[in-house]
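Intended use. Records like the one below are meant for learning the mapping from a protein sequence to its folded structure. Do not use them to infer anything beyond what is encoded.
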Amino acid sequence: MRGRRLRFARQVLVSLFLIGSISSSATAQENRVACCSDFDYVLERTIFKIDAVRLELTLLGETPDRVAEIVGGQAEPRAWSDSVAALYMGADHAHVRMMFLRSFGLDRFLDANRDAMQKMVKSGLLTEEEFERLDAENRKRFAVLTMDGVRDGDQLEHEVRGDTVTTRYTDVTGAVRIDEIQIEAAHRKALIGSLFGPGSGFRKGLLDLVFDRAEAP
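Structure written out for the chain above:
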């Protein structure tokens, strides 16, 4: 009888150990990927006439896992900034929300977009033809904001699934001013490139978040 009790106790302990190990591994995996999938970041560079904006970004699919493998497997992960940024540039599933924290004119907003895309042309991420076409489309798309401009509290949201980009602009009153779908690789490249491409105002801050969280104990 006593032997049965001991065997049962051992079985319980082994089961608890296995459950704990699985739970610990799952948590570690979640933490590893969490460092690379979710961002909440405020950009403010008024000296360059880029007004304050809060970015909430979630990367889905394989990209966060692939980034986690790099930043978790290197002695100096920050030395791999270009590789990490390149992985993010290839992301094909993402949710992007930008909340504007200051009001400013539409021309400033469009010029900032144009500047970002020009940098992508210089780095080879966009062709000159794609740049000119996307810039013209942007000016047509956002023309509904000509009178009001961008207002404090307005939100611009994008959802990326493959080469399909859904864009929704909701103003501070809750009115949806833009709700469109674009299906073309250039739209995805321009959007993700505005966050992680060379010269992007967001790039350094977003990558710093990744490395800081990866290095945290």
